[in-house]
Input
Amino acid sequence: MTYYDISGVCIQRSRKALLIPPPQRLELQKSPYVGAGAHSQYELDMRRKAEILKYDKGGDKVNRLTKAEQFAQLANGSSQRRNYSNQLLQGIIDGVLSCETLNSGVPTMSSSCDIPGPEFEIVLDPTVPLYNYVTNTDAYSLLPVEDTRQYITYIQTDVLVSSIAPPNELFLLYIDNKIEKPLTTFQFTVPFTISTYPSTYPSSIVYLNPYVYAYYNSTLIATNDKNSLFVKGVSPLMKTVPAVTVTYTKTSSGFFTGVLRVDGLSLYTSPGYVLDIKVIFDLAFNLGITWQVICNPAGSAGLQITGY
Output
């Protein structure tokens, strides 16, 4: 029996899970029963009832008249339609208002709307929200929104970086099906901050030299660590060496801000790959001063990446 090692596939699936965006959610209408401006059950039911009854359900009755009835209307002149204002005025004079007059805000008795049972007053109050009123205007598509990105990144804020092996994970790079080439070269920038303790400005910085590593699972693909200072005995698959530079300035006592820039990071980009981009800051101050590097600090410009 042959056994296959699927640990690499499991690692890729777990890494990809961090990059899957949550599905779109339907935002439901806020309940008018609670909170500021809450309305009673009676008010909401009345608004919904008035909204339904204000439409003339017998408006097409003329289409169901017989020829004799239509001739009788022509003979006595009753087929001439009255405009809305005359209808409302006549209803007020006669003391009988039809349901169509609800649009005017005039209270109407339930008997005028052919509602059986004890009479009650119906009024259309536009200040009461129309809640649980089913319409045919809301259509929600089940089709997914097309994502045209060739690659997707995932990076956390305030990534603590040290000069102690193994390298610290900086961000994930997921290669999507839209990728155009099997070999893509990336350029990215990430802001960082440096703090020292004690909080004093060192007379000089001995060196500030970051090393970047690109991994597929445990396989090192590319790095600028040509001498294997922090990753011993592992040769990268890609023989090209990315150019890594940093710029930084002192902003306060014992505090620096800067930008890490990586150019020419060539990677194999087959669809479905999840690559880990890691970094180590090989940095030292004068004796007696400890330091800390935070990449992608909260509130900064964040990761900027392009592929070509």
The chain has a mean pLDDT of 77. The two ends are 45 Å apart (CA to CA). Residues 151-307 form one domain. The CA atoms of residues 25 and 140 lie 11 Å apart.
